[in-house]
Amino acid sequence: RVELARRLREPKRVILLDEVTSELDMLVRKSLLDFLAETGSTVFNVTHVFEGLAGWPSHVLQLSQGKLLRFEPFSAEGGSIFKQMVAWLSATREDSLTPLRAPPFPRHISSGPTVSVTGLIFSYGAGHAVRLEDFALSSSDRCVLVGLNGSGKSSLLALLAGRRMATDGGESVKILGLRPFQDHAKLDRDVSLLSSDWKRQVGQLVSSSGLGFRELAETEVKDLTSQGFNAALLSARLLRLMQMLSIDPAKPIGALSDGALRRAQLGLKLLKPVSVLLIDEVTADLDLLARHALLQFLKEESDEGSTIIYCTHIMDGLEGWATHYLHLRPAGLPGVGMTAEGLVGSSSIGSDAELSQQVLRLLRSDQDLAAPIPAAEPPSKLLQEEPLPPGWQHRQATHSGAFGNYAWQEEMRPEDDWSFKSVAPEPSNKPAAPQWTTPGPAELPSFPAAALSTAAPDSGSSFGGYSASTPVLDPGVNRSGAPSGGRAEADHPFSAGRTNQMTTEQLVKLGIIPPER
Question: CA gyration radius for the chain?
């Protein structure tokens, strides 16, 4: 949102948007589309999210394999842009195979509620993060979870998955009649949570290795087989997921795009058939056909007895999909559960546009209830609480870094690459800038002579300001300890040529930082 505000702050005759709305919540996306429609600019919007676009585009352009398939004035047929786009894109697919249907797995089918929440009040500190008085779901129910940012959607799913414990000892939350936190070992076979954590963890784990989906899937199948799942049924289910999500089993996970990595996550996490499936905002990276296929798969799962809670801010393809909706509210107000019919009274929802309008109505009713953002202190008051690190005034780094409240980024790089920009004041205890001189041949120290001298500044610690113990690199010695031949300032670790590339061992050896005690 900050980047969009920065890019759109000045009027432009042409605005090009490349997949910028998938991470936005419904209210912000709607506001952005309304703003763009009012600018009078020519707007080119590349997107996989069509919720909220009813009546917005004047034209549609479709590409396939680099070829222009259509460019024409646009009007949605039947009120659902999503269904129309799915039909268009499906017609261009080369892998138009008949979708596989995995054989059904035996599941824990409960005669009572599979998910039950009664009198739940959960908070991280001041104020309530989640409040839900009475809510229950049964086998084969599909619930869409909606709410403003910060209303507690992810927190509720974490409570249901046993990742967090309610303060009442867990009695307010039950899954299959058990407490999800205390009885997680018993529930592990029957409950799965899909969130963004997996994508970050696996991306970091295998980014530098050649592991592909095939290796991860084989490990997962072996693990599930050891838990008692049927290996043949798992293999059939894996093929179904790979075909549905267009997963390349040989490509290294670390080389996948965001969308492909998300599909790999879904393939692995959905491999285990469960009685309760919790999904937390994992569809933003998916393209239109992958999201459509996922919704179909989840419906098949619920038809076989699974209870599904699906948290999302993208309503594409959800008309007629959910049996229930759960609206979490901010400011300590209790959440409201309702059936699909209860969302719109006695009338049925006939299109994505109608569903989107109903959910927007709920969210707008909460906008004025959300806690206001507290006014920030002026930067000068906040940033002066900590002394500045040595060399701050020469902060031309090639990599972003930080020190306490301060952060820096090389300020001469292109604007698109900025991640930090300093607003730091001059340090109150900054000594006079050192006068580096080029030593003559007789003045060069002999290797491995001591390379350090000591500055005599005012006060402060060697980590935050300037003190009598702050070592300064001798201008005639480079970072390796060898003579520099007079290239003093370029080799000084806090000079204008600073690169932040020295290792901790080098810094300790040169006396820039003290060794750990």
Answer: 29
Phi and psi at 232, nearest 5°, equal -65, -40
> For residues 266 and 287, is the Cβ–Cβ distance under 8 A?
no
Specify whether 73 is located in the same domain as 185: no
The residues, any chain, with a CB within 8 Å of residue 218's CB and separated by 6 or more, are none
Structural domain of 43: 2-90
For residue 217 the two structure tokens come to 């899937």
Q: State both tokens at 209.
A: 């290795």
Residues, the chain: 517
pLDDT tens for 416-443 read: 433 333 444 455 555 555 454 444 444 4
Which candidate, 270, 268, 311, 265, places its Cα nearest to that of 285? 265
Q: Which of 231, 230, 309 is nearest to 277 (CA)?
A: 309
Task: Say whether both 340 and 301 belong to one domain.
Answer: yes
Q: Is 258 exposed, middle or buried (0-12, 13-18, 19+ CB in 10 A)?
A: middle
Classify residue 403: in a domain, yes or no: yes
The pairs formed by 55-61 with CB atoms below 8 angstroms and a separation of 24 or more are none
pLDDT in tens, 58-77: 999 999 888 999 999 987 76
Candidates 349, 344, 282, 290; CA nearest to 321 is 349
Q: Are residues 515 and 432 in the same domain?
A: yes
The total domain count for the chain is 3
Contact 466, 458 (CB under 8 A): yes
Nearest by Cα to 128 from 371, 342, 373:
371
For residue 69, give the CATH number of its domain.
3.40.50.300
Our CA angle for 387, 391, 396, nearest 5°, is 120
Q: What is the pLDDT of residues 99-116, one digit of tens each?
A: 666 667 667 666 789 999
The distance in angstroms from the start CA to the end CA of the chain is 44
CA-to-CA distance for 360 and 147, rounded, in angstroms?
Answer: 10
Of the three residues 367, 394, 418, the one that is the final residue of a domain is 367
Beta strands 14-18 and 42-46 are parallel
Q: What is the pLDDT of residue 320?
A: 87
Write the CA distances from 427 to 391, 436, 481, integer angstroms.
10, 21, 29
